[in-house]
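Researcher: Structure prediction, please.
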Amino acid sequence: MNTTTIVDNQRTALGLAELGFDVFPLLPNQKTPALRDNWKDVASRDPARIKRHWSGENRARNIGIRTGMPFQNGFLVVIDIDTKDGKPGMQSIAELEEQLGKLPATTTFRTASGGEHRYFVAPWPLGNSNSKLGPGIDVKGVGGYVVGCGSTVDGRAYDLANQEGIAELPEGWAAACGRPRERSALDRAVPLVDLDGPFNIERAIAYLAGGAPSHGTYIVACHVRGLGISQEKCLELIVEHWPGADGKTYDHIETRVRNAYTYAQDPAGIACAEVEFEALDVAPRQPPAGNWDEPADLWKQGKPPADMLEGIVPPFLNAFGRDRARSLGVNSDAITAAAVAVVGSLIPASNRLQMFQNRSSWSVLCVLWTALVGDPGSAKSAAVKAALAFANPVNKAWSAAFAKEMANYDRAELAFSARTSKKKKTEEPVEPDGHPADVMAKPTPPKSRSKISNDSTTEAIVTRLAETPEVAPLIQYSDELSGWLGGMDAYRAKGSKDRALWLEAKEGASYRVDRQGRGSVEAPNLAVSIIGGIQDDLIARLAPDLETDGLLQRFALIAIRQLGLGEDNAEDPAIEAAIPRIALALAGLGEATYRFATAAAEELWAIKAFKAREMARPDIPSGLKTWLAKTDAEFGRYALAFHLIEWAIVAEAIELPPDDLISAATARRARRYVEEFLYAHALFIHTTVFDGGGHDHEARWVAGYILSRNVQRLSAREVKRARPRSLGKNPRQLMAVMGQLEVDGWVRLVTSDPPSWRINPAVHDGRFNDIRRAETERREAVRGEIAIAAASRRAQGGAA
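Model: Predicted structure follows.
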């Protein structure tokens, strides 16, 4: 019986439209527009259109409210007060009220994250801004939208906080919010600035060197055009300064640049500081001196998804993840996801899931590729090694069995050698053995088995899977996956044979290798799981090459973040005792084929619908669409893993084999694992790590250095000295990072030989005080740890 609560937002949307709001549909439980069409065109007060958008299965869609539109006797504006993750929105509002006057009581909604949306009628159209008025204060005006009442995000609702009507926004507040930049009235053929000015050229070079994506010539040219650069100069700068120009012909670049200047919708110079709308800043903050851009909040979009696996993965793995995460000081979901990959890979490749009910042509096995992505020092290696603890009991059991097999082999070899030696020494002919059973065959040495491979060649892996097929799926473990990825085909003169093999290794089919001069070998199941960690900046640099054949899209990319120093918590005896019991139960499974129960089969079609819906979105990066295309098969792999892990946890108690049917509850949790957890992390990494070109982490580090030391001017030499292991070794990356900071409004190049930068005074005006405090505390903690470690080494040396 289906007891799911059906959310019906159609009536709410109609009521909002009747009150004068322009509404449009958002995806259920999300803030993202639900339709492919431009949401600004969809927003409407038309009851017929609203009924269509929230009809049938779409009644659960969230509601978006377009801001900046004519409303009552003015224009709708929403002041968004953010308190999520400790942001000081309420404190900022109180400080602003002391300077601008108290805001009148007005219609207020409590947001899903605990903040507030305060609705006002502005006397004139206002612009959008993020933390411009103060930390944690966003303004939603022309061209913006908010999530409306009746909606939920992460299961939490947007609720009405009072019974007030919508008040008029005082003119002082409206002036502080600033007017919008109106693009629709601009003539795209008329530049807004004098083209090719020295400052604009500097900004364009900084963007091309550090802030531009590595592909998409047309998009890059459009951005350079917006910085106030002529077509001829744009072509010159892209060829000379954009790393993405490498490998592209001059004709290709020239054509894309010409198209950008022919078809771009905005006038040249639209992104220049002097044509941005003028916002009146509140005292004591002064407008950035010297036509500075507003400094971007580099940390605003840099937070990975929060932990969410409670109630999704088997409970024991959640408990394991929490226990190890407490010790390491990282987010528990990262360790739990790594454990899911390792434990699932203990299931022999002879166990498969038939995906369809009536056809046997499509089946999957538990081959799981997982990469923990994070900053240097985020305990990626320790987290992976914690999960690999589940493989240790299997290797230990196999080692013990191998020792016994070797002892038996030694005895048999000794007997065989003694018999053949006796025959050779006898001068008289020896009677042949009368019966086949009496014939002594030369014994075959046993093969050692191991579940984990560290740095094997592809030929060695196929040979191992051919000689010991019971180890499949093998677990390929790399402490730093960038080395494994970069080492592909390192010993081959040409071609990409390694990558071709790895692409096959996710499917688990038979695979044959012809070894030169040594015959051929065939593995019945080329099944290899992969687990490891990789730095976010390294994977961002490797991503363009890895996306060409879908290798990267076969990974579950999980963002790991350091939450603290960890602690010396006591081991949980129940967890430690369960690890070998679960591991050995799974590794000992015999060959079997599983299927979905009838109700569970509906989850496959649900994941297919999810895949189609998300792939149709125009804002999804192409690499992420390739990942989405594989989600139904991944769902099957995790459904099989969850099913058998749940059995292994209780196998010793029930003394029964696993059911050959996967339940609807298990399939639903596997679907949620893919849709809610894996997709959230994939979306975060594709849109923040990859789009940042690999420099985001270093840019945040330099920005934190600037804040914690109150730096007013910064030289390349100082950056190298402060960051010797990364930026100190790579001058080109240093310039790219500083170029990104210039694009983000933090610095401005003042001398090029030697390079030095002036710091935007606005970064020290208080807007980043929370970041300043956190960075100062973090750096002091690191220095303290280093001092303690040094004292410990000195003490040990003295004792010796």
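Model: The chain is about 45% helix and 15% strand.
Researcher: Thanks, that helps.
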